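Because showing beats explaining, we let one protein speak, sequence and backbone structure tokens together, and leave readers to judge.
___
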Amino acid sequence: MFYNILQTRNLVPDVNLMKVEAPDIAKAAKAGQFVILRIDESGERIPLTIADFDVDEGSITVIYQVMGKTTKQLTTLKTGETLQDFVGPLGTPSDIRKLGTVVMVGGGVGVAPVYPQARAYREAGNHVISIIGARNEEMLILEDEMAEVSDELYVATDDGSKGHHGFVTDIVKDILDSDQQVDRIVIIGPPIMMKVGAGVTASYGVETLVNLNPIMIDGTGMCGGCRVSVGGETKFACVDGPEFDAADVDFDLMMSRLSFYRPQEKEALESYNKKCGDDCKCH
């Protein structure tokens, strides 16, 4: 079975959106879950968080950053072409319920998984405050979409080209220092951003959740590649997560494991570039 690509488009430099026809996955998908895709029979399996799902259309939307060989190869695929495998929904759905005020924080491409969660929290009756950030205005994604699903939206850029000049965590601290009641904070982005965010919120006693993105292969808990240390125990992000309590996560161990295969990843990308250039679909 092959999966039809319904839409592809570039959002910002090196970040692309792909909408795939997958009606069974769309019917079952919930915020916080992910899919694993494979371009062709000799391709690499990669996990991508579900950025949106449409039951009526029977579609799943993923957003990816071009980082290595497979994500670069994805950029060569066009509307009407197909993927060999598209498996999901995988992972435990996010804990969405009515709590009161929920602060959603997304950094870089991490805004993509924040979007369906922010929408779900608001649909559950929460007051949703969203904070999104990027290196600069050109790299911000889903700003209009986030505004639609949020009661309040704040923007931060590292260079000050839009919104707050600084980091998303600066705004989180400002909110926590105010007299506004906050019942939960959800932070999704680069591991270092989630680590810093967890450090900022630790002294305020507000429940803080993160979505982890370790190395992942099979997505069903069999290979152990996605293991992380949470509260001193080994957890598999693909089945126990990807959502965990930020206070319990060993971020340093996760970041160390993420770099383990970097030489091989670099070699695969260089080999692809040498063989294929920018436009070829070879593997």
About this structure: The chain has two domains: 1-88, 94-210. The radius of gyration is 18 Å.
